[in-house]
Amino acid sequence: MNKITSIKNKIILILTRRIYQPPPNTPPEISTTTLPTIGIRLLVSVLTGMWFAFFPIYLFVIYMLHEKFFSYDFFSDGVFGLKTFFFVLLIVLMALSFHLWGFLFLFKKACIEYSKPQPNKYNKYWWWTYSMLIVSCGFHLLLLFAGTRENQGIRLISFSLLGFLFISIACSFVGGNTFKKMTDWKPPIFLIFISATIPAFNTEITADLISTALLGFNVGGGVHAKVFSTEHPEKVIHEGKLLLLTPNNAYFRDGKQSYRIIKQNEIFTISIGKSDNKEK
Length: 280
Known about the structure:
Blueprint: H1 2-19, H2 34-67, H3 72-77, H4 79-114, H5 124-150, H6 153-172, H7 178-183, H8 186-201, H9 203-217, E1 220-229, E2 236-245, E3 249-253, E4 259-263, E5 268-272, H10 276-279
Helix pairs in contact: 2-8, 2-9, 4-5, 4-6, 5-6
């Protein structure tokens, strides 16, 4: 039994060292040849920051393009709300990504620990990897069940693939030579390219993700809404699918290729979502 265990440990050690080869512990030498690289890396960092500051606007432009409307006041008066909305959405997506694919991140950490000169066979990352693998299987089964039940398989597969992309990016920052990663400008450029092209070439999926988030906050995405007269609450001025609620206007779907804008003021009251009385 001990012999079998010893052979198994040797096989695991060989595999993990093939997957992850630890870098030498020699400190990097900064030469004059690396100074231009550092300059390029700083410039790329600035461009990356500017791109991701613009990224929420980019996603909403794709959503508006897909839904055949455009809101000027949303970008002029609702920038703070837009960034807050995107920040919350990002946190939710990161949490979902870790529950779906977090075992890959922990597996890489376990490989790093195991490939050290004196590896710990029972390092904590192995147990966390096994635990997260069980959690991941459970979450994927839930997504599969929900997708087949509500006929939204493509939407849920998109969430899963997006989560895989998040975890892949996180795994790329684990291990390796820290100085080399700090001066390497190629990964940020690749990240900008991927984040720009994937939503652009998958506008339907991108619009569906934004629509789902807007539905969660009841501020658009096709949620049912009514516009009442403030003076005559029983009078319904307009009723339909709300595409987007901005600080100044409400945008409603009005046909397949058209939309209606209703300005928000003290004359109108907008009721979003179906009331309990209607559902009963």
